[in-house]
Amino acid sequence: MKRIRLMLALLVVTLGCCLPAQVPPVDPHRDAFVSDLLGRMTVEERIGQLNLLSVGFDVTGPQLSKDADTKVRRGWVGGVFNTFTPVAVRKLQMLAVKESRLGIPLLFGYDVVHGHKTIFPMPLGLSCTWNLDAIERSARIAAVEASADGLHWTFSPMVDIARDPRWGRIAEGAGEDPYLGALIARAMVRGYQGSDLARSNALMACVKHFALYGAAEAGRDYNTVDMSRRQMYEYFLPPYRAALEAGVGSVMSSFNEIDGVPATANRWLLTDLLRTQWDFQGFVVTDYTAINEMSEHGMGDLRKDAELALKAGVDMDMVGEAYLKHLPELAAHGDISESQINQACRRILEAKYNLGLYADPYRGCSEERARSEILTPKNRKAAREIAAQSFVLLKNDRQILPLKKSGIIALVGPLVADQQNLLGSWRAAGDWQQAVSVQAGISNVVGAAVTVLYAKGANLVDDPALRETLQGFGAEIPVDRRSPREMVAEAVAAATRADVVVAVLGESSAMSGEAASRSEIGLPQCQKELLQALVETGKPLVLVLMNGRPLTLTWEAEHCDAILETWFGGTEAGNAVADVLFGDCNPSGKLTATFPRTVGQIPIYYNHKNTGRPYKGDPKFKYVSRYLDMPNDPLYAFGYGLSYTTFSYGDVKLSQTALVGDETLVASVALTNAGMRAGEETVQLYLSQPVASVTRSVEDLRGFQKVRLQPGETKEVTFRITPEDLKFYNSKLDYDWEPGEFVIRIGRSSSQVKSATVHWSQKEVMLQAR
Ligand code: NOJ
After folding, report:
1. In whole angstroms, what is the distance from residue 423 CA to residue 228 CA?
2. Cα–Cα dist 265/269, whole Å
3. Atom nearest to 206 CA in ligand 1
4. Is the pLDDT confidence value at 298 over 70?
5. Per-residue pLDDT for 13 more than 50?
6. Is the pLDDT of residue 2 over 90?
7. H or E stretch covering 504
8. Span from the CA of 222 to the centroid of ligand 1 (angstroms)
9. Distance spanning both ends of the chain, measured CA to CA
10. Which atom of ligand 1 is nearest the CA belonging to 60?
11. Which residues line ligand 1 (CB under 6 A)?
12. pLDDT tens track for 544-590
């Protein structure tokens, strides 16, 4: 080990620089170093580097790793996850460095998904900020905290496009749109990895779950996926690719199958696409026991599956130890080659080099750093600001919000005093006792100026079987033993005495996230009954929602005066809710996943196709694509979200209406703050092409701008559109644009736009015509 460090120190000095986060494909010094190390390893030790164990504080899958210490000493482990804190990391790292033959340091990973100890809003909420700087900042803070706690690697960003809110993991991604999803993927990778992976406060990112995991049939987690290549390339793959372009160090294979072959055994996916077409240089890790699960998929026994996975392009085996168990034998029988093992091992060793682990296996990990850099007031302030930006105001009749900082408020609901659920399903190292409840937040913001009457009103769920399942999945669901009727009566009494009712309702955090699909996505029945009773009091009623997915809210939208969607807002959720309720912050979030009216409309997403028989609003026509019992359109569309002020949009102005070749079109609208408060609007640009060689979506997001305006202020918001924005995948999977008519739509959401049309022709066509 000493020799390794000396060699590395020399190299760093000679180079006089650090590695950039965008890891160079070829680095002669790294290659020489890794080749030397590889040359000194036994086959067993090389296979050991491909083994990732779950050791420590958290359980994030169905089985646990055993005998970690012994395996580390023998050199049978390349990395571990679920171990953090300087003390725990140092202890285990010392075992690897001091007691294994070659002293190769371990890689320490963890699911730092929306913050490490300062928890930010759950990812779907983060995406509703449409604020890439804020998202990058949240990832940077997460990286600083996690690295101070001894970590090197996060299993994030999760960039799976999801069009089905029954799927609980919709909470973990950026919603349904590939354009926005790609920008967010980039921002998160940049935030985690920083400008230089070797810096002690950088975290290597892992883009997941490659690929298409969000398209599980019927929204049931781990279920089968089947889709056309064109659909993949156009709508589902762009965010993974964007993460790669941002220099992501690792990729996690997904649990689902693709084209009939599990992703983890899919050579087309992990080699042809990822390596050959996209030139990925980092390493591929499986998801939790994904190789072992291939036998349930129907791919044969574990020996066969280990062979398939290695040959497909999987470098590291998470928890399942299929590689550890079977690669030696497979190599001995010539079923796999030594060079296949070497290649995978080289990629893991390179990642450790990129992270600077050979130079300092304990990089950045000190108790002093952990004390001074984790959960700082500054980090909490950022979490509060970002949480407020993630909230989406769905309804605000008669400007009932913001509330006055005076009078009497009935604060009702099972999530009012809750600190545990608001951290969301990937709370990871987040400490719920540090989290601010809505009740505490309101008291922090308005103090004694407002009289607050609190009543729980209902339990989160009443169904004992569901409650038991959720508790078993890690959510603490405190149960009030009073009868539902008694609890509702108390809430109604409080409401009757109040000027306004604020009901804080929603899901428990374990109702979304992994293995948390739901077939009905409304509020749990007991909470619905509470809400009905509150509506009957006739008092002005504000519904504050906490939940991990779009919900069906048709009844609520009709009967509540205001609805504020706050997702699971993280450590500072309660303060942020109070900031928005009382108008210290003007909400600006916009939805990134469609809210259906009913479950029967799912999958429902804004960038759908027109079909040959589109419904045009006249119910007298029979043979059209529609439901008899429900409108086609959603309750709340992609991009939707209100503000305490109102924004008015002028008509779309275009620099020209006929363009040729690679000219640039300038499209603009005048945006006016027509209300009484300063506010921020996300102006969205959508394009559509009514005629092309393949059918196109009715519209695709191609740009957006966040604009802050004072009351009465007007700004010209301008977008520059080039042929790059017109491109799509044709039936040969070429990514190009085709001449024709384009509709430019600019507006406040995908369903509220102003539009104008241009004709864009290719140069050759114009010349020929002349
Ligand atoms: C399984 C999940 O699918 C994945 O997202 C996570 O990173 C791993 N478990 C590790 O906890």
Report:
1. 37
2. 9
3. 7
4. yes
5. no
6. no
7. strand 500-506
8. 12
9. 73
10. 11
11. 60-61, 111, 155, 208, 287-288, 514
12. 999 999 999 999 999 999 999 999 999 999 999 999 999 999 999 99
Helix axes 484-497, 525-536, angle to 10 degrees: 30
Amino acid at 494: A
Token pair, residue 744, equals: 């430019």
Cα separation, 55 vs 106, in Å, equals 12
Question: CA 278: distance to chain centroid?
Answer: 22
**For ligand 1, mutation pick of 114, 207, 250, 252 (most atoms within 8 Å of CB):** 252
CB 66, CB 294: distance < 8 Å:
no
Using the atom order of ligand 1, give the atom closest to the CA of residue 155: 7
Alpha carbon of 288 to ligand 1 centroid (Å):
6
Nearest ligand 1 atom, CA 255: 3
For helices 377-390 and 573-581, angle between their N-to-C axes, nearest 10 degrees = 50
| Ligand 1 mutation pick, 288, 291, 317, max ligand atoms within 8 A of CB | 288
pLDDT tens digits for range 193-214: 999 999 999 999 999 999 999 9
Per DSSP, helices labelled H in 269-365 are: 294-297, 302-312, 322-332, 338-354
CA 10 to chain centroid, in Å, comes to: 40
- Identify the residue whose C-alpha is closest to ligand 1 atom 11: 60
List, as one string, the DSSP characters of 371-387: HHHSS-HHHHHHHHHHH
Query: What is the three-class DSSP state of 141?
Result: helix
- Phi, then psi, of 468 in degrees rounded to 5: -65, -45
How far is it, in rounded angstroms, from Cα 504 to Cα 212? Answer: 34
Picking from 674, 595, 669, 681, the residue whose alpha carbon sits closest to that of residue 643 is 681
Q: How confident is the model at residue 225 (pLDDT cuts 50, 70, 90)?
A: very high
The tens digit of pLDDT for each residue in 366-399 reads 899 999 999 999 999 999 999 999 999 999 999 9
Whether the upstream peptide bond of residue 211 has omega within 30° of 0, thus cis, is yes
Two tokens at 481? 């033993």
For residue 614, the cross-strand partners are: 625
Q: How many CB atoms lie within 10 A of CB 340?
A: 17
Q: How far is the CA of 53 from the centre of ligand 1 (A)?
A: 12
Q: From the CA of 226, how far away is ligand 1's center (Å)?
A: 22
Nearest CA to ligand 1 atom 4: 287
Counting from 1 in the atom list of ligand 1, the atom nearest the Cα of 82 is: 11
Q: How confident is residue 472, by pLDDT bands cut at 50, 70 and 90?
A: confident
Catalytic residue among 27, 111, 177, 287: 287
710 CA to centre of ligand 1 in angstroms: 44
Residue 723 CA to ligand 1 centre (angstroms): 39
Question: What was the pLDDT predicted at 65?
Answer: 80
Mutate to test the pocket of ligand 1, among 54, 58, 60 (most ligand atoms within 8 A of CB): 60
> For residue 53, what are the β-bridge partners?
80
pLDDT at 441: 98
287 is an active site residue: yes
Strands 665-673, 714-721: pairing is antiparallel
Checking if the pLDDT of 162 tops 80, the result is yes
pLDDT tens for 27-56 read 899 999 999 999 999 999 999 999 999 998
Residue 119 CA: distances (Å) to CA of 209, 434, 631: 22, 10, 38
* Residue 212 and residue 203 in contact, taking contact as beta carbons nearer than 8 Å: no
Which of 55, 160, 223, 514 should be mutated for ligand 1, with most atoms under 8 A from CB?
A: 514
Indicate if the alpha-carbon torsion angle 750, 751, 757, 763 is positive or negative: positive
> pLDDT-based confidence at 364, cuts 50/70/90?
confident
Q: What is the mean pLDDT of residues 713-732?
A: 98
Percent of the chain with pLDDT over 70: 95
* C-alpha of residue 611 to centroid of ligand 1, in Å: 37
Predicted structure pTM score: 0.96
- Ligand 1 atom closest to Cα of residue 208: 5
